[in-house]
Amino acid sequence: MTTLTADLAIIGSGSGNTLITPHWEDKRVVLAEQGTFGGTCLNVGCIPTKMFVRPSEAARGPEEAARLNVTQRTEAVDWVGMRDRIFSRIDPISDAGRRYRDELENVELIEQRVRLAGARSFVAEDGTRVEAERLVIAAGSRPVLPDVPGIHLPHVHTSDTVMRIDSLPRRVLVVGGGFIACEFAGIFSGLGAEVVQINRGPRLMRGLDEEISRAYTEEAGKNWTVRCGRVLSSLAETDDGAVTAEILVRGAQSEEEVREPGEFDIVLVALGRRPNSDLVGAAEAGLDLHGDGRIAVDAFQRVLSGGRPVDGLFALGDICSELQLKHVANHEARVVAHNLEHPDDLRESRRDAVPSAVFTHPELASVGLTETQAVERIGAENVTCKVQRYGDTAYGWAMEDRSGLFKTVADRRDGRILGACVMGYQASNLIQPVVTAMSFGIDAHTFARGQYWIHPALMEVTENALLGLDVPAGERPPL
Ligand SMILES: Cc1cc2nc3c(=O)[nH]c(=O)nc-3n(C[C@H](O)[C@H](O)[C@H](O)COP(=O)(O)OP(=O)(O)OC[C@H]3O[C@@H](n4cnc5c(N)ncnc54)[C@H](O)[C@@H]3O)c2cc1C
Ligand SMILES: NC(=O)c1ccc[n+]([C@@H]2O[C@H](COP(=O)([O-])OP(=O)(O)OC[C@H]3O[C@@H](n4cnc5c(N)ncnc54)[C@H](O)[C@@H]3O)[C@@H](O)[C@H]2O)c1
Fold this sequence. Notes:
FAD/NAD(P)-binding domain; 29% helix; 14 helices; binds flavin-adenine dinucleotide; binds nicotinamide-adenine-dinucleotide; five-stranded parallel beta sheet; Enolase-like, domain 1
């Protein structure tokens, strides 16, 4: 059995790969990766999904054009061409990243699953043991599969496999009401498939501000079939390779009402992702875990055991973070990189004003508190909200926009912006100025009036959503 010693060992080549900075050039690094080099975001996550969202939105072009008195037609969608274009860009990036690391003299790549074997050591499947001065667990998360008959049928997919299928399905069942389900329902419906989305709860994207979540559920229902209060009960294969699904209506009274059969070409299951702490053997190694399987870390990203940080052991990204977002994993990686290199000057990761977006149709974005959370935190009398319709701004007229909403939430006593939630075209971009104001502590009025906003750009939606808040302007407010 081989034993390797290292100054730094990393489990996971997603965000973990970025830790190998020039600081480690003259030191020994071991990087373990069980799967495709580069992790989730590059290979099966953020990047390829958005590369499918773009053509899907393009295929929807005629819908918007029709509102603008232009007749267009989407002639055809070349799924295979699209898929191959997307992955012929992504796969070489993964390959090149792998090759680059493999060729570095100071880096040892272990392409196997590894399990912790002590505070800063792990063992690979072939028995290779690694003993490290510092160890970072960046092993990510994986899709949760419900325990229903037929879940392993070949046409039942998760986000890991659905983007590589051989043809555009005609009928798609999407199971779930969160980020992944809503993005893929948008992608496939835009590309012309008949999509049925089932969701256990009463609304899609229930983590968002309730007003926006309701509005989105309604809008989504105009674009594809949305059935809330439904759970998947079983799946079976038909003779011609399709999948039949039995769906239960939650809370229905009589036996006849409760079952909804359906036949689909593929099923996409998106019911959340669980941290890979079990795959690395975190519990057996004595590490503290949250109830959902996340590894517990302190503000410096140090892994906890018995409530105390383990010397030289860090974690980052989906395996420890409540927010399974790439920009969060990247931020935590920068913090870990700093803390590895500067043990006497540890820096904390920041958790305030973390935005997210769902690239569905219409697009969604949010940051900070929802109205309900703000009321719980500071009392209804201190909360002010504004819902700005895209359609009530000049660019919204140009777009003939019918559904876009930008909601802001603030503390009416001092104008502190507490949160925002957006549904509509370019929501992920329009929300960014609010993230800026929240991150730098600029109150709503100063931020809205203290700068020029280009007229009549769509960003006036953001400006008006801030100006509409009932907040103090200050003694000598900007004009
Ligand atoms: C379909 C989809 C779309 C997404 N879209 C977005 C988006 O638009 N924006 C956004 O911010 N976030 C998005 N996310 C979330 C984002 O991809 C993740 O939050 C992020 O990639 C997590 O990075 P990570 O470094 O923690 O883990 P990963 O990138 O998953 O890296 C972990 C690596 O560890 C490896 N590993 C695990 N266990 C072991 C082991 N025992 N031994 C060796 N190796 C191991 C895995 O194979 C994996 O490669 C999306 C996720 C999915 C699934
Ligand atoms: N654009 C983005 O930033 C982006 C895109 C995709 C994924 N992600 C990240 O990946 C994570 C995972 O995505 P996801 O969509 O799988 O999870 P999610 O947490 O967003 O949604 C899971 C959904 O499944 C439902 N659910 C869970 N268990 C269920 C069960 N047994 N039966 C019925 N319904 C059940 C939940 O109520 C929820 O609606 C997201 O939380 C997000 O952090 C981000």
